[in-house]
């Protein structure tokens, strides 16, 4: 069972930059049959030096470049991985430049020169620096490159990118020539100093240059090679814009290209072991073969596909929502929550308000994406207390599955209505005067203030208090019913006219109130009060004639109605009497054949519609009588009747004319 190395292993040849580097294998053990999986990880050793693309680098830097400017340098490559890979850069000592080491997304390092002190061409025309790349081995391996810097006269405006980082995504099967991104820079200089040329930055890896192409004039970045999501998921591309001046200005930007996986790898089925031949007496459950299935694609592209076999599930089947009236329009009042265990599009939920009442569309709205229910207008408890609606939650499958949720919105009451006086009516010019006789004892009810409150519950409870009176000691008012009583016995020296102001308050928060004015006269009879009222009434009231005509019209309509009802009653009695006589007449002929003209007389008498009649046969026991049929009435009643006699059974029978649905028994 020992695992041996068969030949020399080169990790860089096997896995390249991939880490960790591992080789997988499977071991089959027989008798009993078992399968074991194993993995050998190839560990890296520091057996490679960092390498620069060239031994020398040349830079042209204008003397007008301000301190802080950055200049990317050629990156060194080290095929080792981990700590043995390229770890840092070092720059030889100089008074003008410092080195800034940056880390890419994949962990690799690159260096930039940072100008700390501005250059002066008159003082120094060129600089020679040494850049050293070091890995992390022990001892470390290194590489060197000579950097020659020419200080030239200024092209005082460098190109500027409109953004420092661009982001794009492409599918891994994107054909060559497809546009990925378009970078753009501007230069304020004129002529050649303002013409911009786009190019890859010097530290862009060679692999990136093989996969992408950059148009130097337009800045369009296009696909050049074949992308593979399984190899690299994200590319970090560094580009630069350089003008055509004698000392070209340079600007740099970064493009992040995300590779989107497509389902370009079929599942691979591997038969690990086959147990053959299979004995005919093998027990159920005996292992016949070992299979393994793998798919190199990611996410859903690498799983068994989903079927839309689950309807959306809601946290509860119904919701009761309470909204105070006079609410602010547009506020959210409920969030309908639902989930779907399916995947992808089959799990994408949308929410719809099923409106049984078309007016709901003006009152409520639901967010299609998250299920938030909004009230669009201010609700009024006095207008409508409850709204019932149905929310449908539907997934995005084909065909879609849906679940309905019942939502009831209850409008709670606020104290927004003051009590309204019904009696005495406050909006009339007529004077309502109640009369009480002199000497009336205490506790006598004189009148009652009637009021209502449109609110509900505690907000509609009304209390009555005496706010003002001609004689406060003479009358009192019921706190809850508004009844006005005499508080003491009336005396001869009491004033003949009394005016009471009653305050009506509800029990809401805040309290709303109104008042009613009641006039009471102390008099022996109503005639005296009417005389007083006539004296104070306007002499020429144009409405008194209208009132007279209205009263006259009511009297005439009432009289006409009474006469009509009396006539209908007399007619009904007459009809009932005729039917009773006909019934008595038929009883006397129960056991003989009726005369040939009875039916004609009945039709003429108005007891049977001329279009049909009922034919009934009776036995000697009329409780067993059967209703045979409805027959159309022919033009000859006599002929029809004779036909009935001919078609009937020879036994005793009786024919009843009319439309009654039940025949009277002999007892009746």
Protein model, in words:
The protein has 668 residues and is mainly beta. Among the domains are: 31 residues, no CATH class; 97 residues, Cadherins (Immunoglobulin-like, Sandwich); 101 residues, Cadherins (Immunoglobulin-like, Sandwich); 29 residues, no CATH class; 100 residues, Cadherins (Immunoglobulin-like); 103 residues, Sandwich (Immunoglobulin-like). It has a four-stranded mixed sheet, with no helix packed on it. A hairpin with a 5-residue loop joins strand 6 and strand 7.
Strand arrangement across the biggest beta sheet? 3-9-8-5
Low-confidence stretches: 526-539, 588-668
Please bin the fraction of helical residues: 10-25%
* CATH fold-level name of the domain at 420-522: Immunoglobulin-like
Structural topology:
Blueprint (H helix, E strand, L loop, with lengths): L10 H5 L5 E9 L4 E9 L13 E7 L7 E3 L13 E6 L5 E7 L5 E7 L10 E10 L6 E11 L7 E2 L3 E7 L7 E4 L2 E2 L9 E5 L5 H6 E3 L5 E4 L10 E10 L6 E11 L7 E7 L14 E6 L18 E2 L3 E7 L6 E5 L2 E2 L9 E6 L5 H4 E3 L5 E4 L10 E10 L6 E11 L7 E4 L9 E4 L8 E4 L1 E3 L9 E8 L5 E3 L5 E4 L10 E10 L6 E10 L3 H11 L6 H45 L10 H7 L7 E6 L8 E7 L4 H11 L21
In brief:
This protein is mostly beta strands and 668 residues long. Among the domains are: 11-41, no CATH class; 56-152, Immunoglobulin-like, CATH 2.60.40; 160-260, Immunoglobulin-like (Sandwich); 263-276 and 289-303, no CATH class; 313-412, Immunoglobulin-like, CATH 2.60.40.60; 420-522, Cadherins (Immunoglobulin-like). It has 7 helices and 40 strands.
Question: What attributes characterize this protein structure?
Answer:
single chain; 668 residues; Immunoglobulin-like; 4-stranded mixed beta sheet; elongated; signal; repeat
